Amino acid sequence: MPGIHQSVVARFLVMFLAVFAIASATVMELGSRQRIADATGELGARIGTLAAAVAASLPVGTQLGDTASFRRSLAPLVADAAVQCVDILENNETLAALSHPRRLGCDVMNPESVVTIALPRSGAFLLRVGFSAAEIRQMRIDMRFDILAVMALGALISAVAATVAFRRTVGQPVEQIIRAISTYMETGENTRVGVSSHDEIGMLAATFDDMQTRLQDERRKTLAALEQVQGLYNCTPALLFTMDGSGTVLTASEHWRAETGYDQDEAIGRRLDTLLSPDSRVRFRASILADLLAGEAVHETPLQIWRKDGSEIDVLLSAVREPASDSAADAHFVCVMADVSLLRSAERDLKALAITDALTGLPNRLGLNQALETLRGHGGSTAAAAPYAILFIDLDNFKPINDSFGHPVGDRVLLECANRLRYTAGPGATLARIGGDEFAVIVHGGDHATAASELADRIVEIVSRPVLLNGEAAHLGASIGIALANEHRTPEEVLRLADQAMYEAKSAGKSRYVVFDDGTPHPVNARNHQVKVINDGLANGWFEMYFQPIMDLRTLRPLAVEALLRLKREGAGFNGVEEIIRIAEESGQMVQLGRWVLASSIALFRDLEAQCGCRDLSLNVNISSQQLTESFVHEVKKCLRANPDLVGRLVLEITETAAIRRFDVVETLLADMRQAGARIAIDDFGTGYSSLSYIARLPIDAIKLDRTFVAEIAGDGSDGQPLGKNAALIRSMGVLSRELGLELVAEGLESPDDISAMHALDVPRGQGYVFTPPLPAEAAARWLRHATGRKAETTGKSGRKAAGR
Amino acid sequence: MIRKTLLAAALALATCSASAANITLQDKIALQATMAAYIESHSVGGIVPHVRLDTGETVNLSPAKAHPMILQMGDQYVLCTDFRDPHGNFVNIDFYVARRGGEFVVFQTEVDNRGPLKALVQDGKVQMLD
Fold this sequence. Notes:
Helix content of chain A: 40-55%
Helix content of chain B: 25-40%
Strand content of chain B: 35-45%
Oligomer: heterodimer
CATH class of chain B: Alpha Beta
CATH class of the domain at 531-787 in chain A: Alpha Beta
CATH superfamily of the domain at 531-787 in chain A: EAL domain
Number of strands of chain B: 6
CATH topology of chain B: Nuclear Transport Factor 2, Chain: A
Number of helices of chain B: 3
Shape of chain A: rod-shaped
Shape of chain B: globular
Largest sheet of chain A: 8 strands, mixed, barrel
CATH topology of the domain at 531-787 in chain A: TIM Barrel
Order of helices and strands of chain B: HHEEEEEHE
Distance between the termini of chain B: 35 Å
Strand order of the largest sheet of chain A: 17-18-19-20-21-22-23-24
Radius of gyration of chain A: 68 Å
CATH architecture of chain B: Roll
Number of domains of chain B: 1
């Protein structure tokens, strides 16, 4: 039972009764007061009127002594119940008195209850009346009882009626609403009140019913959404789960369970860290859980989680605190783990690939750097590193093989060399391929200096063994630089020093090793110096072009001039023009240098033509294989457009090795240049590895026989004809060139005998010191001016063969 | 709420109990006796003759009922008695009474002239005694 303060009916009754009592008491009090007043007034009027009447009726004078008469006159007055006594006074003395039997007389009465009236026509006589207001008091008492009785009965009847009415109109609908709310709270069922009145309670009930309907709809939608979310949670192909602040798994999606292999009972209630690898466990406890409890989100933190079958998954864990969580103590966290196992595996593969040479399977330069890093020691200091030595190996003679036979053959050679190095170095050393034909070996532990030297010896020996290529033996070598690590050298520095020592070995004649020590006067700085000289030479005009004529061997008249590069710098450190070209090619300066050669040659040739007055000469310019690009073709075309009279007179010389490398591309580029008006000559023919079929297919105009053919022609035969294999080859080349429509030029003619021999071998053109060495442009112009006016003068055999390019 | 209601009721009762002037029952009896004695002294054979000055007609009025109601106007009191004329019509006479020593005297009467007195009551210059 609810208390008075908890029951609407009880509170209503208390209020009602209080108001009723107050109102009715007030009304009745006012009414009774009026009645009392009226009664008092009537009493006063009654006694006053009666007393006046008695006074008027009293005999005055002689009868005053007749007490009996007085008493009879006063009797009507005393008969009134309110009159207590009455007497006649004469000069304040009582003449006659009549009183209520219980009274003793007016003298003993309260003076306020006595009224004195003068008798008319007799000023000495007074009528004194004593009265009582007892009837008024009794009336008041009676009225109080009546009031209380009426109030009690009225209150009872009103309370019952009001209670019934209140319960019907308010109490019962409210109880229905309360019951509906209780039902909803207990069962979630949405019940309706169904009150049909149109008053405020009816409006309240109708509003409640509307609210119930809306709640039911909302609940239905919420359940549907929840079901959908649950479905998404389980169907999402992600490792979803929730956990509490201790890392205990609270829920796990079906996908999570399927991926990990744990069923519902095994996963729920289990601490996540018991499923993690040791490293991940530490990270989870120290970092992830701490961050989450501190209110921070966790983003893609890598972890390794164990499946039920013992295998490991690489995952990225992201987690946030559930918004509904109020405090860290009862916090729940929504977590998702992305399975990145495949990605990690691919990363490992890529990492391995990144540090591995695809051809040989050896570590590449990056792999070598990593190996060197491990040597640096855990403390990162060079002093802490284990003692070691680095062998920097560069294959000798590999480039010509690669250029001549192409990359597939070159790759086979590299693979063969790598296998030999691997075999020779053994499992205790770290072998890496760090460049095209460059290898490095790290020898560490023990007497590493001695071990490195011995290993270098063995490598030089084993690499020098011939490599069989299509049944033919190719000979390579190994130039090796050795540098020893010490506490002052970083691994990178040791490798660089080994590289320097390797160049020293190259310079010393190849197929050998050089151990770098601090006494070595920076051997490899020579190469750096050479690179710098080329750069500076291009910038400061240290290069110049010389010109050597190409002669008609029958008429001994100049037909063309070949532009040849010279360096006007003493002590530059180059061993001939070939080394300039090689260094420029290796250092990536060849394109720039070749562009300068072409432009400078044409410009000087124009001066030369003007000075000698010979406008029908051709200009031969040497080009490197690195220049054979679309860009160079455009450059040539541009030059020919600028100098249209050079069309058909500009001859570009390319070595046969450069021509057959990238044959298809070179063939197209050469054809383009021919189409534009340039002519093509194969330079130094006979020194490379090209076959005749290449010559037939190349779009060329001339062949220049290498000087070695001319130099090795044997002495005269009995009939004065040249003898020997070279003579036969030259003769054959003459026939071949005529058949192919190619011009044939003999290089390196140094004596009149050479001219005679070439003449005898039917070689129509030639050049060499027999006519003139390469000359600066002005001198060449003078020479040509003379030459065009007379036959060639013989200069005698000079013996200088290093004309250079 | 209940306490407030009860407090309001108590105040209402107190206000009601203090709303009207009062005189003692002794004075009421004396005033009524004074009025009755005055009527008695001015009656002839129980009849109070009254001359209507506007018509010169004398009307004999016989007392019918003394009103218990007493009005107070300053130190004076007003009492009323209904009379009947010979035709049975009520004629009220108001008696203006003043205190003289230990007794009261009627010093003025107004016959069938209630209008001015009502105006004084409405103006609050005359109060009804309980």
